[in-house]
């Protein structure tokens, strides 16, 4: 198959959707079964291919991202064939809005529907375009790829997409050798973009409970690893003042090459998000042998699979209790590590790519059927 993937989510910072985009392209290229092209456009940032994607076809256009998105989302122009001077069997957008094409099957990935249920937690083009256009684009897509059964159910129920056009293609686990056991010293790790739906404020409330005396022992540092959005300013101000001053530190975006070392220094990972379509840090933590505290919402119970502690993200005291349990009960933490390692091994990129390619084949068939019926 001649496949084009919109690589722009991974162009600048590979977190969340960007990391999924990169790993998907890497896994597709590794099979050698398809003629893969990755597309990028930006006025400032140029597409730089690293060793993971050596040999892949690339198309890099000097067009501002916001301008191209405006043209694609509002006018559905220009078609990708005009931008690349190539023809494709499948064009794959890694967000919920279609990539215009004259003749290729159109595939989209919907990671979650948080932009519909809580638009106040979104910003920029996501807030402007996604709620208005997502339903129409989902109805027109030849196939929709989602990272979890949770998101599949949301797309079917909320956007009215038949189940046979939705393919669950989860993130694959990194090929890491897990640690033998959690360390006796280290930090509590939060690893995600600092934005409202990640429940950073609730996590800080939970840590205040621990600092105030609910945790009997030396309180480890809470390390906030991830890019700070504009909404993060009150949280950053908060951790610079008592009672959290000296207990919480923000280190910003972490490059992919440094992520394994970040997990190695953690006693546990805490992910108290209000909603996740998958939750990559949970899978990465389990792969590294790091026990996990996660919210009992969205896809996180599905990914964790009983291998860690689930908490109500609306109750900071419950988040604090989950953290304290893994810190205080070493035997239980070790048990969670073992279950997490076994759980992580169920997420394999080779299986994911089989599902992705099957979705592409079905999308091509649907496109051809639509063309004949037109």
Architecture overview:
The longest helix has 25 residues, at 349-373. The chain is of the alpha/beta class. The protein has 2 domains: 2-172 and 348-373, Glycogen Phosphorylase B (Rossmann fold, 3-Layer(aba) Sandwich); 187-344, Glycogen Phosphorylase B (Rossmann fold, 3-Layer(aba) Sandwich). The chain has 14 helices and 13 strands. α1 links the parallel β1 and β2 (35-41). α7 (200-214) crosses α12 and α10 (280-288) packs across α13. The strands form 2 sheets. A 7-stranded parallel sheet has the order 3-2-1-4-5-6-7, with helices on both faces. Strands 10-9-8-11-12-13 form a 6-stranded parallel sheet, sandwiched between helices.
CATH class of the largest domain: Alpha Beta
Uncertain parts: none
CATH superfamily of the largest domain: Glycogen Phosphorylase B
Topology as H/E string?
Answer: EHEEHHEEHHEHEEHEHEHEHEHEHHH
Helix content: 40-55%
